[in-house]
Amino acid sequence: EAGVAQSPRYKIIEKRQSVAFWCNPISGHATLYWYQQILGQGPKLLIQFQNNGVVDDSQLPKDRFSAERLKGVDSTLKIQPAKLEDSAVYLCASSYGTSGGARETQYFGPGTRLLVL
Amino acid sequence: AQSVTQLDSQVPVFEEAPVELRCNYSSSVSVYLFWYVQYPNQGLQLLLKYLSGSTLVKGINGFEAEFNKSQTSFHLRKPSVHISDTAEYFCAVSDLTSGTYKYIFGTGTRLKVLA
User: Does A56 contact B102 at a Cβ distance shorter than 8 Å?
Assistant: First the structure.
């Protein structure tokens, strides 16, 4: 079974530029998550999709971050414009069911490491 | 409010020695508890989880954890570590908050196994 795929693996941009990350979850997984992991911290949930609907985006900085999951499969996360404090690893995860992820195992991709200069 | 505390940011231990990584949480409702491991340049991988039932949970790679409701803890243990266990370990809690399940990670504990 193929795992969660993410691209690119690394990205370096200057502040005020825009950037997009792509995630392809495990086939058949209904729930998709985007996390931000700043160096030295645990992952912080940015947004959670169930199929192609948003379940939770309470911690997404909506003035600069946006995400979509068209057709309930793959997803993109965009930052526009980027700030220095956005430097982090962006992790995508997916889980099988639709119970909101509470009891289920999340399967993580390798992440995209973003450096904003 | 829901939170997870991993007091030890780094834990060095010699190969074949036992190890315990501590995790405490705060939540006013029933919780689900998880331990994930992150190897360098990789995503997180589930080690084990507590949903209900027996408070002693066994996971992959010889790890186990014990849910202690009175102490609000979920410490991870392994009786004999290997060099390959060197990684970062994250405790996570999921509970029902304001009608939505929130999944919160701790700040992680970096386990360094020494030869």
Answer: yes
